[in-house]
Each structure stands twice: as C-alpha cells, then as structure tokens.
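Contributing new records

If you add data, match the layout below exactly. Sequence lines come first and carry their own label; structure lines follow with theirs. Keep one chain per record. Anything else will be rejected by the validation script.
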Amino acid sequence: MSSLTLRSLSSHASRYALSSSIPPSRPSTRLACFPRRTIVSTSSVRAVHAQHPPGEHAELLSYPSPSALEQSEEDADEPDVDFVPPEEAVIHLTDRAAEQLRSVAERQGDAAALRIAVESGGCHGYQYKLDLAKSKEPEDYHFSHPRIKPSNVYMDAVSMTLLKGSTIDYATELIGSSFRVIDNPQAKGSGCGCGVSWELKL
C-alpha cells in the first residue's frame, strides 16, 4: 500500500475519532412562564371584615328645620349653628350596631336610641360622647338602619356637621363591648388609641 493511501486512512480515522468524542447536541429546554397569582384566604377576608365591617347607608327619618335651630339657639343663647341639609346628612350603620340597637329598643321601648355628640376636649381636641336616649329633641337628626329596625340614632345639629359621613359600629372586645364611631371624614389620622378622642381635619 502506498504512503499516500496510508496518510488518507490515518486522516480519516482521526476525523472519525474526533467526531465520535463530541456528544450530540440536545435541544434546548425552556421553562414555561406562568402568571403569578395572588391568593387571598377566606379567613383573612373575614378577619378584615370583623375588624372593619362595612356599614349600610342609614335612613334619615327626620331632621330639624332651620327655624327650629334658630329658636333653639335663642333659647340657649348659643352661637349660630351651620344647618346640614338632608342630602348632606349622611351616616352609615353596621349590621351589628343595628342589631344591638334593636335589642335596646326591645328592652326600653321603640323610641330608645343611641345619642352621639361631639364635645371639645380629650387629648386630640375633640371627643365622642355616646349615650342611650329615650326621646328625640327638636334639633336632632334621626337615623335608622334600612333593614334592621328599630335602630334609632340621634345627633344634634352641631355634632352633625362633625359626624357626617361617619360609620357607627358596635365592637365586642376582651375589655368590653361598646358603640364606636369609625371612618369619620372630618377626623385627621386614626385619633387616640382609646377611639374616643380625635383631631379635626382642617
């Protein structure tokens, strides 16, 4: 066999050995991308509602007339009170607050109500005063839950200007149960930790 033939065979064998040592290429594998989902558990939603329950738009059953307010101011020698028209006299009442008010009315009579007033004082300048009342005054705004009745709430004209848009709730806690005012648009920040004293938003 000639030297040329031996060199050709040797070159062919080298190329075969090199090609056999390179592993075959594999098709690239791409990971499928799925959109991220946010999962909210039912228990967490219930916890939020328990701490911050939604309120129903309360019905305005009656409101004072401007003449009645003027007469009340003259009798009490008080400064002029801004009259809140009925379309702006809005509060919200939670179901559990209305249920508690209905229980109060069953014990004390249908006219029994929660009277809410705003007074100056407290660590933030203003404070809520919540008491049970047995009768309505001429200068009161009278509210009720739209479905749960009787569930009466009385507010005087002065307090109405500082409470419109608020939600009335009934909270049951380890230290006791009580009515409270939450989500007051007139209040600045969250107020005092006691939930009674608050600062007016200017």
